[in-house]
């Protein structure tokens, strides 16, 4: 497991946060017990912890289920909504990178097809569509509210190359980034003119 992901899940253990329950299982090597990440028992030291992506793997490695948090029970109820929420969190943090479905799935330690199916079932849209929406919203915001060059805005939302960004924006919004910016800034100017008393 990557250190970054370990830290994320271990933080949930420290905070007794249930966000990773059903996604990872905490094997505590000093006690030989496997727990849900949210278990209320004493927090194990990170050096003594191994996270398993399934309870089966933890059991095969010789761990016994905790009698307190009972990781073997109700493990199938939460994961779908949790997974979708975690995908949203990764998208929100990473939309500026070249984030692909396989990469997103890798971050969540599941297969791309499973992610696609679960995410769509929970949210009604595909993860790719959700990523596009986040990028578009951010691009519109930057075009309206910042003076940053169009190519820079493209990079900021994960689309390199000004023409690539312009074509993508046009395809979704029906106008070019430059036209969108002009339309909006024109709107502000018109409003301002209306509020200024007319000169004699
Ligand atoms: Zn436990």
UniProtKB/TrEMBL annotation:
Gene Ontology terms, MF aspect: DNA-binding transcription factor activity; methyltransferase activity; sequence-specific DNA binding; zinc ion binding
Keywords (A to Z) from UniProt: Activator, DNA damage, DNA repair, DNA-binding, Metal-binding, Methyltransferase, Transcription, Transcription regulation, Transferase, Zinc
Domain called HTH araC/xylS-type: residue spans: 85-183
Q: Name one Pfam family in it.
A: Ada_Zn_binding
- Keyword Hydrolase in the entry? The reply is no
Q: Has keyword Membrane?
A: no
Write out the GO biological process terms.
Answer: DNA alkylation repair; methylation
Record InterPro entries = Ada-like_dom_sf, Ada_DNA_repair_Zn-bd, AraC_XylS_family_regulators, Homeodomain-like_sf, HTH_AraC, HTH_AraC-typ_CS, Me-P-triester_DNA_alkyl-Trfase
**Name of this protein:** AraC family transcriptional regulator
Source organism (scientific name): Paenibacillus stellifer
């Amino acid at each position: 497991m990557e250190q970054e992901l370990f830290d994320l899940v271990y933080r949930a253990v420290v905070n007794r946060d249930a966000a990773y329950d059903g996604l990872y299982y905490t094997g505590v090597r000093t006690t030989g017990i496997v727990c849900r990440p949210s278990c209320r028992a004493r927090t194990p030291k990170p050096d003594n912890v191994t996270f398993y992506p399934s309870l089966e793997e933890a059991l095969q490695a010789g761990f016994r289920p905790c009698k307190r948090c009972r990781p073997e029970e109700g493990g199938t109820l939460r994961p779908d909504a949790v997974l979708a929420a975690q995908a949203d969190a990764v998208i929100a943090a990473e939309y500026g990178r070249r984030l692909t479905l396989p990469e997103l799935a890798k971050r969540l330690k599941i297969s791309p097809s499973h992610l696609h199916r679960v995410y769509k079932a929970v949210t009604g849209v595909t993860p790719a569509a959700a990523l596009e929406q986040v990028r578009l919203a951010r691009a519109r915001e930057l075009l309206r509210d910042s003076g940053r060059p169009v190519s820079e805005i493209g990079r900021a939302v994960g689309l390199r190359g000004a023409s690539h960004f312009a074509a993508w924006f046009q395809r979704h919004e029906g106008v070019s980034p430059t036209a969108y910016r002009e339309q909006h800034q024109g709107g502000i100017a018109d409003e301002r003119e209306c509020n200024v008393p007319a000169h004699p």
